[in-house]
Amino acid sequence: MKNHLLLCFLFISVCGYSQKKTLQTKFISEKIEVDGNLNEPIWQSAAVATDFIMFEPDNGKAIPENKRTEVKVLYDNDAIYIGAMMYDDNPDKILREITQRDNFGTSDIFGVFINGFNDGQQDFQFFVNAADGQADCITTDTNGEDYSWDAVWKSKAVITAKGWIVEMRIPYAALRFSGENKQTWGLNFFREIRRDRQKFTWNFIDSKLGTFTQQTGVLEGIENIKPPTRLFLLPYSSFYVNADARQKTYGTLKGGLDLKYGINDAFTLDMILVPDFGQTKYDDQILNLGPFEQQFNENRPFFTEGTDLFSKGNLVYSRRIGGVPTYKLNENESFAETPNVSLINAFKISGRTKDGLGVGILNAVTEKTPTSIYNRETGKIRNEIEPLANYNVLVLDQRFRKNSSVAFVNTNVTRNGSFRDGNVTALVWDLNTKKNTYNLAGDFKYSYINGVEDKKGINSQLNFSETSGKFRYGVGADITTKDFDNNDLGINFETNYYSLYGNTSYRILNPTKYFNTFNARINAYSQFQKETGKLQTGNINFQINSNTKKNHYFGIGFDANPLETYDYYEPRAADRYVIRPSKLGGFIYISTNYNNSFAIDFNPSYAVFDEAGRNSYGFSLGPRYRFSDKLSLNYNFNFFRQNNNKGYIDSINEDLNLATPNTILFANRNVITYSNTVSGKYSLNSQMTFNISLRHYWSYAENKNTLSLERNGRLMDFAGYTDNKNSSFYSWNADLSYTWWFAPGSQVSVLYRNNAGAFERNINKEFRENFTNLLNNDALSHVFSISVRYFIDYNEVKNKF
What percent of the residues of the chain are helix, what percent strand, and what percent coil, each to the nearest 5? Predict the structure, then answer.
């Protein structure tokens, strides 16, 4: 009888968890002060969301009574208000590290997830930590969490004798929803008790399912709201002082304006006029010995915020817009001076209708820029012109059945005059079964280049996967023709191939005796040259990732290329390839619990090739120490060595009767890389932070002997080549900054930056000398800048007048 009662209780509990919870909100006319007290009388009559359920690590377990959480929601014509009480029987143990925005630190967290269309596709997530810091992001199951998106909203967190309280005011301008009189929103609440590494949600998130955003509860009761005009201005003014040994110190004053306008409740126009990206993070440049360009992260806010729609099909690499000119430099060429293609202006329109149709339009114009290119061997300079260019992206994304979508994407780059233009069109699909157990995803892309050259190409991929349960798997294939080219606004390295791949994985859904989480995965990938069928890549790897009961992370992996492969890219010539030997390697990583004041990350790796004396090994070591809730410091050291690496160095013409080079030269070389980074912060409070970021990098390739590439792909000794093709690149970057969010959306930023870098053919192996050479006055460039940005809400200004 007792067993029957227990089974009934479990059945009722599971049924309750699988259904969507509903919370009723109510309209208010009185003013609420966002002070973390919840002392306005209206809060007492609001409905309560409670009975939170664990998401991780023990999925499905009810929150303990001494940690219960109660949340209430109110609304008016301008915003919704969240009041949350997080009970804790040991409030002194609540972790509360002070961090800058969008960085949770070692702190307890409360969050609210809102989907104004209740379509299970996209959540606007707002977080407050116990140190009163804010974070926000846009989340989709496809792309995960995008913290580059920032909204303007108010919050206050207060520690009490019973736990801690969060009060939030989220204006409608920060959300997207339909214009219907009666609103039904998707809603969920989140709480993390950091010291226990336990995460809870109000509506149960079943980890057996491969979806997060579709398992929200429901918010009802918002009716007949009259949202105000969504017009926001962000004027800025910046002053820069630049100094280095090559030119006289000079100052520059800049000013401009960013604009955000709500076309309606669902669509928003973002525009930048006279942009200023002078305070964006520096690029981590490396010694690039390969055939492909180095890909950099996008650090400019306009191009990182709210880009979910524009990421469909992975066709947009926004670093193409502005920055370095598009001219490809030859082996011995460099820019005579660091060029900068300025962005004249840019705008984007994005939003979604109540029927699930998402529309995204992005347009940017860059100015005509003269460029001087220096040949290091001949000493001559050639002048080129980067033309006026228009960059445009159009996305139409139709969602249906709350878990699937089909999108049309077009990117177009038009350059003034007789320069190259590029156009790419894609159809992208992401289809899920009703119960979110299986997924079919893929795309079809068509590129067309005209102007200096005309070429057309296609790229397509299709993959099928099981997305639920402990055991999961996936299979897929893709194909890219020789002339596919999306590099005018995207980035693509490899063409003229087809590939087949698959994976299978196992995970635990609830803690065991030894692990909180455990995941094992096998991946297999094979790529073939499309015309010859030769194997370009053949790889199989196995990985285990786990989190122990004491919240230390541990992982191990093995990687094998069991067969020789044919590399068609390293020779830098059409229809030529070099044969790569088989390889076997592995790695381990250990990351101790960041809750502790001292933690450390350690990651050694080793690989051996089926070639005499050829191997590679390295490690990264990252200790970190949290001195207090205000002060922390992180250090990371990376070392990597490749012995007897084989790589391209030159092409020569041994037959003077031939117009093109007929001998491709490789080098047998050792490649050694060191990097040191230091980052730290001192937070006066959640609005005011000092930050430091230092990076020293040194990598060199020392050639031991020269090899010629034979027509059969093998390498043979080559005598008589005397050019010095050694490579040594070292760089230094330092950022010291102070940021102050003096009002919602308004910021003062003070930055001192210095940097230096050099590329040399002669290798100096004295580490100390290489390092100190970067820090003298002749090498360093200095920038000091002050920037003030002020957020203006049109409605507040209108009300004042």
Answer: 10, 55, 35
